[in-house]
Amino acid sequence: MGRIDGGVERCNVQKKCSICLFEKHIAEQILIGGLGLLPLALLTQTQEIHIDTSFIFSLCWLVFMISIVTMALWFYLLKKDIVKASQWLYLTPVAGYVMGYLVLGEPITRYSLAGTLLVLAGLRISHIRWREKKV
After folding, report:
1. How far apart are CA 81 and CA 134, in angstroms?
2. DSSP readout, 12-46?
3. CA gap 94, 120 in Å, rounded
4. pLDDT beyond 50 at 48
5. What pLDDT, on a 0 to 100 scale, did the predictor assign at position 114?
6. What does the buried/exposed string (b/e) look like for 49-71 if buried means 16 or more CB atoms within 10 Å of the residue's CB?
7. Fewer CB within 10 A of the end CB, N or C, for the chain?
8. CA atoms of 71 and 4, how far apart (whole Å)
9. Structure confidence at residue 66 as a pLDDT band (50, 70, 90)
10. Contact 9, 68 (CB under 8 A)
């Protein structure tokens, strides 16, 4: 449901602000995908949904922060510099390790640290090379 609401909101915002055509298509894809999955979700739902403050907070977090804000930030970064924006995707596993450690108490192993160091070193090298080519 959150993805459907996010898709509708994104389409409404785009009509008012005349955001680029590419972003409009992404919002429409989210909306159509959410509507297409809705019947399947309703048919396969096995647990009762309890609507309480935790549910509402989680739904709002997913709709606004995870869907709308992150997509807007991503498209903003793509407009500024597509190469730098794509390099940030390599930090996703690193952020996952950190959030797993902070939120879930997951241990950070030496393999996780080694992988993180390799990712950071690769990003640093690519950033230096990109800067040299740009000058």
Report:
1. 12
2. HHHHHHT--HHHHHHHHHHHHHHHHHHHHHHHH--
3. 9
4. yes
5. 93
6. eeeeeeeeeeeeebbeeebbeeb
7. C
8. 14
9. confident
10. yes
